[in-house]
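Section: Multi-chain targets

For targets with more than one molecule, the full set of components is provided together so that the structure can be written out for the assembly as a whole rather than chain by chain. Components appear in the order listed by the source. The example entry contains two components.
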Amino acid sequence: MSASSENAAPKGASPRSGIKSAIKRDRSALGSRAVQAAFIVALVALWYVGTTYGQISPILLPNPVKVYDELIDVLATLEFVTDLRITLMELISAFAISSVSGITLGYLISRSQYSIRVFEPLLAGIYSVPIILFLPLYILFFGLGPASKIALGVTTSFFPIILNTIAGFGYVDRIFVLSARSMGASDYQLFRWVLLPAAFPIILTGLRIGFTVALLSILGSETIASLAGLGHRIVHLGEGMDMARMFAYIAFAVAIALILNTVTSSLEARARRH
Amino acid sequence: MTTTAYPAPAAATPLSRRFKRWILVRPGVARLGVIALLFIAWEVAARFFVDKIFLSPPSIVFTSLHTVFETRGVPNALQVSAYEIVVAFAMSVAIGLVVGLSVGLHRFTHKSFMPIILLLYGTPQITILPLFILYFGIGPASKIAFGVSHGIFPIIVTVVAGVQNIKPILLTSAKSMGASRWHIFRWVIFPHMIPSFFAGMRLGMTGVLLGVLLAELYVSTAGIGYYTTLFTQSFNPTKLLGLISVLAAMAILLNEIVRRAELNYSRWRSD
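Its structure, encoded as tokens over all components, is:
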């Protein structure tokens, strides 16, 4: 069957096409689920067979069973708690600082079209520089401890948050502001009932992006140079050639990151609905 | 009558008012002023408040920029890093295009593999950076591989999106006029994909820069990561800031090239 007509099918399907197509769709959904499951099973099987019977060195790739045992051990002994607490503390501090300062400054800048035109290109220009370049500088200023990670997290997440706040507050349709004013809205009422509802979804998107990049930059700076935290633990185990435990920690860190990202995305979706 | 009334107030207003009016129609000038203020703040802080071993004033950083290039190995390191970025970007585009097309062109492969790709896109690759070093060594190969791992996913996702969002009527009409599969791909799908492909290349370039710089900073024997570590550990903020400015300029230049290309190639489509 030709690829193009299949692409057209889901959007063009008329409601009258009935049960037959529903069954067909179910079957194709089942099929793709099966392919996904098969892909993952094949990957793990290849990993298992390669490391158990093949010639792959356990230093390059540890046995999945061993990795699983180590992961259970890490979870059961609660060894992960100290590192996780440090990483989360850095993340929360960085996100709190950047969201408060980003939203406040963004709101102040968005109050006049003139200051938007002065500041927005400047902020967008700095945003296009890879912020990770500042890490050596921050290590020089703040040392190897959590402070340099928080500073890097603040710098990376500040820009998406302030740019989205400016975009949210600055481009509210003038007609809404004018009509609210002409009906006698006070400054507070204008903010509460016109500006905030219009800007809120865009600010939320900025906060979600900021949270994700803050998490990435904190894990990254912990990997590059640090004293504690999840990223540090992974590097430390890698340098000690304790590969199975390192894989277990990688799986743990990835799971934490995915959980945090899923939670923020669903929070964003929920807040947007109100 | 009224003709004489107009020039008079302009001459009568005080200089400050006229300056204010002049600057209000030129936000660009005000922006330069803000940048100048930031540099002055940096200069004052570095000269009078912060210890010399942590921060150098911008005047010294920029006048001694040439000493950074005169440091033995730095020009070579910049070359190595530029080479890593270019190779990683080219590989990301090539692999991303092939994977994106093969995943996006069929509904079944799209439904099967897209969730896996999105899952991988969502994982923080930084956690497996030590593995990249282990598998590819501490030379340029690991930086290129890590850059590709960051640059490839945005390209795949945007190529898939570009292929998928084609209006069914365009495909139906092309087919009813007797276009073969190759013709449909060449004259309908391919032109339609171009704008989002270039948007993907821009995101991919950001990813490649991030990946290569992360790997460079993590461990490096000849690249710029080696020299940032060296300047940090020897408390030489003048050279460190100089090197960081050169790298930032390089990153902005590369981003700008890709952004210009994107603007250029998506102009033909108005909707």
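Residues 187-224 of chain A form the longest helix (38 residues).
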